[in-house]
Amino acid sequence: MLQAEWLVAKVRNSEIYAQNLYAAMCNREFIQNDVWAQLKGEPRWRCSWRSAGGIISDMREEGDYMDWYCSGIRHEDGTEQDQYVSESTVTDEIRADLLRLGWRVLDQDE
C-alpha cells in the first residue's frame, strides 16, 4: 500500500478516506486476487486495529496508531466524522481500491 502513490495521496488528502481504510483493515482478512492463491487459500493477510492505525499514520506521515485507534466510534454532530465507519466495515470505495491493488477483502464467513 505504501508504494501505491495514488492510494497514499487519497489517504493524505482525505481524513475520511484514511479512517475508512483504517476501519477496513481492522480484524479483516485479505487474499491476493489471483486464482491460484484463492484456490490454495493463501497467502492471507490480517491486520490488528493497532497495526491498521500505524499503517495509516505512516501513509499520512503524521501521528501514530492512537490517532486512528477506535476512530470508528460514531460522532453524529454534523462534522466530517459522521462519515467515519466502524472497525471492520469495508466501504465500496475501499473494496474497489484494494482490488485495484490486487487484494480481495474476504467476507466474515470465508
Give a quick rundown of the structure.
The chain is built from 5 helices and 3 strands.
What report would you give on this structure?
- The chain has 110 residues and is mainly α.
- The chain has one domain.
- 43% of the residues lie in helices and 9% in strands.
- It has five helices and three strands, in the order H-H-E-H-E-H-H-E.
- A three-stranded antiparallel beta sheet has the order 2-1-3.
Topology:
Elements: H1 5-13, H2 15-25, E1 29-32, H3 35-40, E2 44-46, H4 49-60, H5 92-100, E3 103-105
Antiparallel strand pairs: 1-2, 1-3
Helix pairs in contact: 1-2, 2-4
Order of helices and strands: HHEHEHHE
Question: How many separate structural domains?
Answer: 1
Regions with pLDDT < 50 over 5+ consecutive residues?
A: none
Rg, Å, rounded: 14 Å
Largest sheet: 3 strands, antiparallel
User: What's the total number of strands?
Assistant: 3
Instruction: Tell me the distance between the termini.
Output: 23 Å
Question: For the largest beta sheet, what order do the strands appear in spatially?
Answer: 2-1-3
Number of helices: 5
Fraction of helical residues: 40-55%
Strand content: 5-15%
Overall shape: it is globular
**What class do helices, strands and sheet pairing give?**
mainly alpha
Please, what is the average pLDDT? 86
Labels describing this entry:
single chain, 110 residues, mainly alpha, three-stranded antiparallel sheet, 5 helices, 3 strands, globular
